[in-house]
Design brief:
single chain; 140 residues; mainly alpha; Arc Repressor Mutant, subunit A; 2 domains; 8 helices; 69% helix; 9% strand; disordered C terminus
Length: 140
């Protein structure tokens, strides 16, 4: 396994591990607000911690480059908004993580997924199948 693969797999487990704590905090603010400038996010986050404007601007620029934020120019500033709802983001992240595990570990990953499903009751398994089929259509 390559070092890059190991780094990618270390991020698996939660949104925060995937995005980083400040990226997650920025996304939370934008999901709540719907849209905001860097200044507005700095003010929101400044209630709980001291952050430089340039730090938040860098984070929001990176989130835009990752495709998680969209932005429109309003005069000399950008107004950012989430590219996906929180639920859409979680669905995409989950799908990508599962695909990454299957790509990296193949049948071993699938065997472990199957083993985990053995512990889930039949009603819940049926609901998961419906969710997976719906999520697969939305991804196409």
């Amino acid at each position: 396994m390559t070092e890059q693969s190991l780094r990618r797999l270390r991020r698996i487990g939660s949104e925060e591990k995937f995005l980083g704590p400040l990226e997650s905090a920025v996304m939370e603010r934008l999901w709540k607000r719907g849209r905001a400038t860097v200044r507005e996010v700095v003010e929101d986050l400044g209630r709980s911690r001291a952050l430089a404007y340039t730090t938040v601007m860098t984070i929001m620029t990176r989130l835009h480059a990752k495709g998680l934020l969209q932005r429109d120019r309003d005069g000399k500033t950008y107004v950012y908004r989430p590219a996906f709802t929180r639920e859409e983001h979680r669905e995409r992240l989950s799908r990508d993580l599962v695909r990454g595990l299957v790509d990296e570990f193949g049948e071993v990953a699938l065997a472990h997924f199957a083993a985990e499903l053995d512990g889930v009751d039949a009603t819940h398994r049926a609901a998961l199948r419906r969710l997976a089929k719906g999520g697969d259509r939305a991804a196409r």
